[in-house]
Specification:
Elements: H1 3-16, E1 18-23, E2 42-50, E3 55-61, E4 67-72, E5 77-83, E6 86-87, E7 101-110, E8 113-120, E9 124-132, E10 140-148, H2 151-161, E11 187-192, H3 209-227, E12 231-234, H4 244-253, E13 258-265, E14 277-282, H5 289-298, H6 301-304, H7 323-346, E15 349-357, E16 369-376, H8 380-386, H9 389-411
Parallel strand pairs: 2-6, 11-12, 11-13, 13-16, 14-15
Antiparallel strand pairs: 1-4, 2-3, 3-10, 4-5, 5-8, 7-8, 9-10, 14-16
Protein backbone atom coordinates (compact mmCIF):
# COMPACT_ATOMS: atom_id res chain seq x y z
CA UNK A 1 0.00 0.00 0.00
CA UNK A 2 1.15 3.49 -0.74
CA UNK A 3 2.70 4.74 2.50
CA UNK A 4 1.67 8.37 2.00
CA UNK A 5 -1.90 7.32 1.36
CA UNK A 6 -1.98 5.17 4.48
CA UNK A 7 -0.55 7.92 6.67
CA UNK A 8 -2.80 10.67 5.32
CA UNK A 9 -5.91 8.57 5.46
CA UNK A 10 -4.96 7.13 8.81
CA UNK A 11 -4.78 10.64 10.26
CA UNK A 12 -8.18 11.39 8.85
CA UNK A 13 -9.52 8.17 10.35
CA UNK A 14 -8.13 8.83 13.80
CA UNK A 15 -11.20 10.71 14.95
CA UNK A 16 -13.78 10.76 12.16
CA UNK A 17 -12.48 8.34 9.61
CA UNK A 18 -14.69 9.73 6.94
CA UNK A 19 -18.18 10.41 5.82
CA UNK A 20 -19.29 7.47 3.76
CA UNK A 21 -22.65 8.93 2.88
CA UNK A 22 -24.56 12.12 3.54
CA UNK A 23 -28.29 12.09 2.80
CA UNK A 24 -29.22 14.87 3.15
CA UNK A 25 -26.51 17.20 4.49
CA UNK A 26 -27.24 17.99 8.14
CA UNK A 27 -26.17 21.08 10.03
CA UNK A 28 -26.53 22.17 13.63
CA UNK A 29 -29.14 24.73 12.57
CA UNK A 30 -31.29 21.99 11.07
CA UNK A 31 -31.22 19.82 14.16
CA UNK A 32 -33.94 20.31 16.80
CA UNK A 33 -32.76 21.01 20.34
CA UNK A 34 -34.70 19.97 23.44
CA UNK A 35 -37.45 22.47 24.05
CA UNK A 36 -37.46 23.71 20.44
CA UNK A 37 -39.80 20.98 19.28
CA UNK A 38 -42.52 19.49 21.46
CA UNK A 39 -42.44 16.22 19.56
CA UNK A 40 -39.13 14.41 19.78
CA UNK A 41 -39.11 11.56 17.25
CA UNK A 42 -39.35 8.06 18.71
CA UNK A 43 -37.32 5.12 17.40
CA UNK A 44 -39.59 2.15 18.02
CA UNK A 45 -37.74 -0.79 16.46
CA UNK A 46 -34.46 -1.76 14.74
CA UNK A 47 -33.40 -4.82 12.81
CA UNK A 48 -30.60 -6.17 10.64
CA UNK A 49 -31.00 -7.98 7.34
CA UNK A 50 -28.73 -9.39 4.64
CA UNK A 51 -25.47 -11.31 4.73
CA UNK A 52 -21.68 -10.87 4.61
CA UNK A 53 -21.88 -9.32 1.14
CA UNK A 54 -24.40 -6.63 2.02
CA UNK A 55 -26.00 -5.86 5.36
CA UNK A 56 -28.89 -3.48 6.00
CA UNK A 57 -29.92 -1.74 9.20
CA UNK A 58 -33.53 -0.56 9.38
CA UNK A 59 -34.88 1.67 12.17
CA UNK A 60 -38.61 2.42 12.45
CA UNK A 61 -39.41 6.01 13.46
CA UNK A 62 -42.52 8.01 14.34
CA UNK A 63 -41.48 10.76 11.92
CA UNK A 64 -38.94 11.44 9.19
CA UNK A 65 -35.55 12.76 10.30
CA UNK A 66 -32.18 13.59 8.76
CA UNK A 67 -29.26 11.18 8.84
CA UNK A 68 -25.51 11.34 8.41
CA UNK A 69 -23.43 8.15 8.27
CA UNK A 70 -19.66 7.81 8.35
CA UNK A 71 -17.02 5.22 9.17
CA UNK A 72 -14.21 4.97 11.70
CA UNK A 73 -11.19 2.67 11.70
CA UNK A 74 -9.25 0.89 14.43
CA UNK A 75 -11.62 -0.61 15.42
CA UNK A 76 -13.88 -0.52 12.40
CA UNK A 77 -17.27 1.06 13.06
CA UNK A 78 -20.13 2.72 11.23
CA UNK A 79 -21.50 5.80 12.99
CA UNK A 80 -24.98 7.16 12.28
CA UNK A 81 -25.69 10.67 13.51
CA UNK A 82 -29.32 11.76 13.77
CA UNK A 83 -31.31 14.43 15.61
CA UNK A 84 -32.26 13.66 19.18
CA UNK A 85 -34.70 10.77 19.32
CA UNK A 86 -36.33 8.80 22.07
CA UNK A 87 -35.14 5.21 21.73
CA UNK A 88 -37.88 2.75 22.71
CA UNK A 89 -36.42 -0.41 21.24
CA UNK A 90 -37.34 -3.88 22.49
CA UNK A 91 -34.98 -5.38 25.10
CA UNK A 92 -31.60 -6.68 23.86
CA UNK A 93 -31.83 -4.75 20.60
CA UNK A 94 -28.39 -4.51 19.02
CA UNK A 95 -26.84 -7.42 20.90
CA UNK A 96 -26.94 -9.92 18.04
CA UNK A 97 -24.77 -10.10 14.93
CA UNK A 98 -25.70 -10.39 11.29
CA UNK A 99 -23.66 -9.99 8.12
CA UNK A 100 -20.90 -7.40 8.57
CA UNK A 101 -22.39 -6.10 11.83
CA UNK A 102 -21.22 -7.65 15.09
CA UNK A 103 -23.45 -5.54 17.36
CA UNK A 104 -24.71 -1.98 17.69
CA UNK A 105 -25.54 0.50 20.43
CA UNK A 106 -27.52 3.70 20.51
CA UNK A 107 -28.30 6.69 22.67
CA UNK A 108 -27.99 10.41 23.24
CA UNK A 109 -24.51 11.67 22.44
CA UNK A 110 -25.12 15.36 23.19
CA UNK A 111 -28.05 17.72 23.56
CA UNK A 112 -29.95 17.68 20.29
CA UNK A 113 -28.12 14.72 18.77
CA UNK A 114 -28.43 10.97 19.06
CA UNK A 115 -26.13 8.35 17.61
CA UNK A 116 -26.11 4.71 16.54
CA UNK A 117 -22.72 2.99 16.48
CA UNK A 118 -22.31 -0.33 14.68
CA UNK A 119 -19.31 -2.54 15.39
CA UNK A 120 -18.41 -4.15 12.07
CA UNK A 121 -16.27 -7.12 11.15
CA UNK A 122 -13.81 -5.16 8.99
CA UNK A 123 -13.51 -2.21 6.59
CA UNK A 124 -16.86 -1.38 5.02
CA UNK A 125 -18.45 1.31 2.92
CA UNK A 126 -21.88 2.80 3.46
CA UNK A 127 -23.57 2.26 0.12
CA UNK A 128 -26.69 4.21 1.07
CA UNK A 129 -28.06 6.06 4.10
CA UNK A 130 -31.54 7.58 3.84
CA UNK A 131 -34.93 7.93 5.50
CA UNK A 132 -38.23 7.15 3.78
CA UNK A 133 -41.51 8.89 4.53
CA UNK A 134 -44.25 7.08 6.41
CA UNK A 135 -46.93 5.77 4.07
CA UNK A 136 -49.92 3.41 3.98
CA UNK A 137 -49.76 2.73 7.69
CA UNK A 138 -46.03 2.04 7.68
CA UNK A 139 -43.70 4.14 9.86
CA UNK A 140 -40.88 6.33 8.64
CA UNK A 141 -37.76 4.21 8.19
CA UNK A 142 -34.07 4.94 8.44
CA UNK A 143 -32.12 2.63 6.14
CA UNK A 144 -28.35 2.10 6.06
CA UNK A 145 -26.78 -0.34 3.58
CA UNK A 146 -23.20 -1.55 4.19
CA UNK A 147 -20.82 -3.67 2.15
CA UNK A 148 -17.27 -4.92 2.85
CA UNK A 149 -14.24 -3.37 1.11
CA UNK A 150 -10.49 -3.76 1.45
CA UNK A 151 -8.55 -1.50 3.81
CA UNK A 152 -6.89 0.48 1.02
CA UNK A 153 -10.25 1.34 -0.51
CA UNK A 154 -11.56 2.25 2.92
CA UNK A 155 -8.62 4.55 3.70
CA UNK A 156 -8.72 6.20 0.29
CA UNK A 157 -12.41 6.97 0.70
CA UNK A 158 -11.80 8.17 4.24
CA UNK A 159 -9.11 10.63 3.14
CA UNK A 160 -11.48 12.13 0.56
CA UNK A 161 -14.80 11.97 2.35
CA UNK A 162 -13.40 13.36 5.60
CA UNK A 163 -13.52 16.80 3.93
CA UNK A 164 -17.30 16.74 3.67
CA UNK A 165 -19.25 18.99 6.10
CA UNK A 166 -19.61 17.76 9.65
CA UNK A 167 -22.23 18.48 12.23
CA UNK A 168 -21.30 21.40 14.45
CA UNK A 169 -19.72 20.44 17.76
CA UNK A 170 -21.70 21.24 20.94
CA UNK A 171 -20.64 24.04 23.26
CA UNK A 172 -17.85 22.92 25.60
CA UNK A 173 -18.98 21.95 29.06
CA UNK A 174 -16.35 24.21 30.56
CA UNK A 175 -17.65 27.43 29.00
CA UNK A 176 -19.84 28.20 32.02
CA UNK A 177 -18.57 30.46 34.82
CA UNK A 178 -16.44 28.70 37.40
CA UNK A 179 -18.35 29.97 40.44
CA UNK A 180 -20.65 32.72 41.65
CA UNK A 181 -18.89 35.94 42.57
CA UNK A 182 -17.98 36.06 46.23
CA UNK A 183 -18.70 32.38 46.84
CA UNK A 184 -15.60 31.05 48.58
CA UNK A 185 -16.97 27.60 49.39
CA UNK A 186 -14.95 24.63 48.09
CA UNK A 187 -16.14 23.40 44.70
CA UNK A 188 -16.81 19.66 44.44
CA UNK A 189 -17.39 18.07 41.04
CA UNK A 190 -19.39 14.85 40.99
CA UNK A 191 -18.90 12.78 37.85
CA UNK A 192 -21.56 10.12 37.21
CA UNK A 193 -19.77 7.67 34.92
CA UNK A 194 -20.87 6.99 31.35
CA UNK A 195 -24.18 8.34 29.98
CA UNK A 196 -26.10 8.61 26.74
CA UNK A 197 -24.91 6.15 24.13
CA UNK A 198 -22.24 4.90 26.57
CA UNK A 199 -24.25 2.72 28.95
CA UNK A 200 -21.26 1.37 30.82
CA UNK A 201 -21.52 -2.13 32.18
CA UNK A 202 -24.85 -3.78 32.87
CA UNK A 203 -26.27 -6.44 35.12
CA UNK A 204 -27.66 -9.73 33.75
CA UNK A 205 -31.09 -8.46 34.79
CA UNK A 206 -30.66 -5.32 32.67
CA UNK A 207 -29.71 -2.54 35.13
CA UNK A 208 -27.25 -0.16 33.45
CA UNK A 209 -24.23 1.44 35.06
CA UNK A 210 -25.01 4.90 33.63
CA UNK A 211 -28.33 5.00 35.51
CA UNK A 212 -26.98 3.62 38.78
CA UNK A 213 -24.15 6.15 38.86
CA UNK A 214 -26.43 9.09 38.09
CA UNK A 215 -28.89 8.09 40.81
CA UNK A 216 -26.12 7.78 43.39
CA UNK A 217 -24.41 11.03 42.37
CA UNK A 218 -27.72 12.91 42.57
CA UNK A 219 -28.34 11.70 46.12
CA UNK A 220 -24.77 12.56 47.12
CA UNK A 221 -25.09 16.03 45.58
CA UNK A 222 -28.26 16.71 47.57
CA UNK A 223 -26.62 15.63 50.82
CA UNK A 224 -23.56 17.80 50.25
CA UNK A 225 -25.60 20.82 49.20
CA UNK A 226 -27.84 20.48 52.25
CA UNK A 227 -24.86 21.21 54.50
CA UNK A 228 -24.36 24.59 52.85
CA UNK A 229 -20.60 24.11 53.08
CA UNK A 230 -19.86 23.29 49.46
CA UNK A 231 -20.70 24.29 45.92
CA UNK A 232 -21.51 21.05 44.12
CA UNK A 233 -21.70 20.64 40.34
CA UNK A 234 -22.11 17.54 38.21
CA UNK A 235 -20.51 16.70 34.88
CA UNK A 236 -23.92 15.43 33.80
CA UNK A 237 -27.34 15.61 35.42
CA UNK A 238 -29.20 13.61 32.78
CA UNK A 239 -28.65 10.78 30.33
CA UNK A 240 -26.05 12.61 28.23
CA UNK A 241 -22.70 11.41 26.90
CA UNK A 242 -19.72 13.47 28.10
CA UNK A 243 -16.24 12.74 26.64
CA UNK A 244 -13.57 11.89 29.18
CA UNK A 245 -11.44 14.94 28.38
CA UNK A 246 -14.43 17.23 28.86
CA UNK A 247 -15.01 15.81 32.34
CA UNK A 248 -11.46 16.75 33.28
CA UNK A 249 -11.78 20.21 31.72
CA UNK A 250 -15.10 20.69 33.50
CA UNK A 251 -13.42 20.26 36.89
CA UNK A 252 -10.38 22.38 36.07
CA UNK A 253 -12.44 25.24 34.62
CA UNK A 254 -14.36 25.46 37.88
CA UNK A 255 -11.19 25.35 39.96
CA UNK A 256 -12.60 22.33 41.76
CA UNK A 257 -11.03 21.32 45.03
CA UNK A 258 -12.28 17.74 44.72
CA UNK A 259 -13.40 15.51 41.84
CA UNK A 260 -15.36 12.33 42.58
CA UNK A 261 -16.12 9.98 39.69
CA UNK A 262 -18.83 7.38 40.39
CA UNK A 263 -18.84 3.99 38.66
CA UNK A 264 -19.87 0.35 39.00
CA UNK A 265 -17.86 -2.70 37.95
CA UNK A 266 -18.68 -6.09 36.46
CA UNK A 267 -16.82 -9.27 35.67
CA UNK A 268 -17.82 -11.24 32.59
CA UNK A 269 -16.80 -14.55 34.13
CA UNK A 270 -17.04 -15.49 37.75
CA UNK A 271 -18.55 -12.13 38.61
CA UNK A 272 -20.20 -13.55 41.71
CA UNK A 273 -16.78 -14.02 43.33
CA UNK A 274 -15.95 -10.30 43.24
CA UNK A 275 -17.83 -7.90 45.47
CA UNK A 276 -17.68 -4.64 47.34
CA UNK A 277 -16.62 -1.08 46.70
CA UNK A 278 -13.17 0.00 45.52
CA UNK A 279 -11.63 3.48 45.56
CA UNK A 280 -9.12 4.30 42.83
CA UNK A 281 -6.53 7.06 42.51
CA UNK A 282 -4.34 7.97 39.57
CA UNK A 283 -1.09 6.16 38.90
CA UNK A 284 1.06 5.72 35.81
CA UNK A 285 1.48 2.09 36.81
CA UNK A 286 -1.56 0.10 37.86
CA UNK A 287 -1.48 -1.35 41.36
CA UNK A 288 -2.54 -4.76 40.00
CA UNK A 289 -3.88 -6.52 36.93
CA UNK A 290 -7.50 -6.01 37.96
CA UNK A 291 -6.96 -2.26 38.27
CA UNK A 292 -5.33 -2.19 34.84
CA UNK A 293 -8.24 -4.13 33.34
CA UNK A 294 -10.77 -1.68 34.73
CA UNK A 295 -8.79 1.41 33.67
CA UNK A 296 -8.50 0.04 30.13
CA UNK A 297 -12.27 -0.48 29.98
CA UNK A 298 -13.16 2.93 31.40
CA UNK A 299 -10.68 4.71 29.13
CA UNK A 300 -12.55 3.37 26.08
CA UNK A 301 -15.68 5.44 26.76
CA UNK A 302 -15.00 7.82 23.89
CA UNK A 303 -14.45 4.96 21.45
CA UNK A 304 -17.73 3.38 22.56
CA UNK A 305 -19.51 6.61 21.67
CA UNK A 306 -18.14 6.42 18.14
CA UNK A 307 -15.36 8.96 18.53
CA UNK A 308 -11.76 7.80 18.86
CA UNK A 309 -9.83 10.51 20.66
CA UNK A 310 -6.60 8.55 20.94
CA UNK A 311 -4.85 10.89 18.51
CA UNK A 312 -6.08 14.04 20.26
CA UNK A 313 -3.19 16.01 21.73
CA UNK A 314 -3.00 15.57 25.47
CA UNK A 315 -2.90 19.13 26.73
CA UNK A 316 -2.05 18.10 30.26
CA UNK A 317 0.63 15.49 29.57
CA UNK A 318 3.48 17.90 30.32
CA UNK A 319 1.80 19.22 33.45
CA UNK A 320 1.48 15.77 35.00
CA UNK A 321 5.20 15.73 35.77
CA UNK A 322 5.04 19.08 37.53
CA UNK A 323 5.60 19.25 41.27
CA UNK A 324 1.96 20.29 41.74
CA UNK A 325 0.90 16.85 40.58
CA UNK A 326 2.71 15.23 43.48
CA UNK A 327 0.70 17.29 45.94
CA UNK A 328 -2.52 16.56 44.08
CA UNK A 329 -1.87 12.83 44.19
CA UNK A 330 -1.20 13.03 47.91
CA UNK A 331 -4.47 14.85 48.54
CA UNK A 332 -6.28 12.28 46.36
CA UNK A 333 -4.82 9.41 48.39
CA UNK A 334 -5.83 11.08 51.65
CA UNK A 335 -9.42 11.41 50.48
CA UNK A 336 -9.47 7.82 49.16
CA UNK A 337 -8.39 6.55 52.58
CA UNK A 338 -11.13 8.58 54.23
CA UNK A 339 -13.77 7.14 51.87
CA UNK A 340 -12.60 3.60 52.58
CA UNK A 341 -12.75 4.22 56.33
CA UNK A 342 -16.34 5.49 56.11
CA UNK A 343 -17.48 2.74 53.72
CA UNK A 344 -16.26 0.11 56.15
CA UNK A 345 -19.02 1.07 58.56
CA UNK A 346 -21.98 1.11 56.17
CA UNK A 347 -21.32 -1.03 53.11
CA UNK A 348 -19.31 -3.81 51.55
CA UNK A 349 -15.70 -3.14 50.67
CA UNK A 350 -13.62 -5.10 48.19
CA UNK A 351 -10.91 -7.22 49.81
CA UNK A 352 -8.39 -4.83 48.25
CA UNK A 353 -10.31 -1.52 48.41
CA UNK A 354 -7.54 1.02 47.72
CA UNK A 355 -6.08 0.77 44.22
CA UNK A 356 -4.57 2.92 41.51
CA UNK A 357 -4.36 2.96 37.72
CA UNK A 358 -4.11 5.32 34.76
CA UNK A 359 -7.73 6.47 34.53
CA UNK A 360 -8.01 9.32 32.03
CA UNK A 361 -10.82 10.89 34.00
CA UNK A 362 -8.54 11.36 37.03
CA UNK A 363 -5.80 13.22 35.17
CA UNK A 364 -6.54 16.80 36.20
CA UNK A 365 -3.09 17.83 37.48
CA UNK A 366 -4.40 20.36 39.98
CA UNK A 367 -7.65 18.74 41.19
CA UNK A 368 -7.52 15.93 43.78
CA UNK A 369 -9.50 13.15 42.13
CA UNK A 370 -10.80 9.70 42.99
CA UNK A 371 -12.90 7.10 41.19
CA UNK A 372 -15.30 5.11 43.35
CA UNK A 373 -16.51 1.77 42.09
CA UNK A 374 -19.64 1.30 44.20
CA UNK A 375 -19.79 -2.46 43.65
CA UNK A 376 -20.17 -5.19 41.05
CA UNK A 377 -23.40 -5.35 39.09
CA UNK A 378 -22.37 -8.90 38.16
CA UNK A 379 -22.64 -9.88 41.84
CA UNK A 380 -26.28 -10.46 42.92
CA UNK A 381 -25.67 -9.29 46.49
CA UNK A 382 -23.94 -6.11 45.34
CA UNK A 383 -26.67 -5.44 42.79
CA UNK A 384 -29.38 -5.65 45.46
CA UNK A 385 -27.56 -2.91 47.33
CA UNK A 386 -26.92 -0.75 44.28
CA UNK A 387 -30.63 -0.54 43.44
CA UNK A 388 -31.69 0.02 47.08
CA UNK A 389 -32.74 3.55 48.07
CA UNK A 390 -31.84 2.81 51.67
CA UNK A 391 -28.32 1.65 50.77
CA UNK A 392 -27.87 4.59 48.43
CA UNK A 393 -28.81 7.00 51.20
CA UNK A 394 -26.50 5.63 53.87
CA UNK A 395 -23.58 5.07 51.50
CA UNK A 396 -23.81 8.57 50.04
CA UNK A 397 -23.87 9.84 53.62
CA UNK A 398 -20.61 7.98 54.21
CA UNK A 399 -19.02 9.67 51.18
CA UNK A 400 -20.32 13.02 52.42
CA UNK A 401 -18.73 12.38 55.79
CA UNK A 402 -15.45 11.55 54.07
CA UNK A 403 -15.70 14.88 52.25
CA UNK A 404 -16.19 16.68 55.59
CA UNK A 405 -13.19 14.91 57.09
CA UNK A 406 -11.04 15.67 54.06
CA UNK A 407 -11.74 19.39 53.99
CA UNK A 408 -11.59 19.79 57.75
CA UNK A 409 -8.17 18.15 57.83
CA UNK A 410 -6.90 19.96 54.76
CA UNK A 411 -8.08 23.42 55.80
CA UNK A 412 -6.64 22.84 59.25
CA UNK A 413 -3.31 21.85 57.69
CA UNK A 414 -3.45 18.38 59.16
CA UNK A 415 -0.77 15.88 58.28
CA UNK A 416 -3.32 13.51 56.83
CA UNK A 417 -3.85 15.81 53.86
CA UNK A 418 -0.29 17.03 53.37
CA UNK A 419 2.09 15.64 50.79
CA UNK A 420 3.95 12.59 51.97
Amino acid sequence: MNRRLDIAAGMAAAVFAGVAMLWPVSTAAQMPLPGVSDAIPVAVDARLAGDDNQTRLVIDLTQKIEVRAFTIADPYRVVIDIPQVNFQFPPRTGEHSRGVVKAFRFGLVMRGRSRVVLDVTGPVRVARAFVVDPSEGQPARLVVDMAPVDRETFLRAAAIDNRLPRLAEPPSVHDEPARAAGDSRPVIVLDPGHGGIDTGTHAPSGEQEKNLTLEFATVLRDKLEKTGKYRVVMTRSDDTFVPLADRVRFARARQAQLFISIHCDALAHGGGAADGATIYTLSDKASDAEAQRLADEENHADIIAGVNLAAEPDDIADILIDLAQRETKSFSSAFARSVAAEFKNVSRLHKNPLRSAGFRVLKAPDVPSVLIELGYVSNPADLRLLISDQWRSRTSEAVAQAVHTYFTTRLAGGAGARPQ
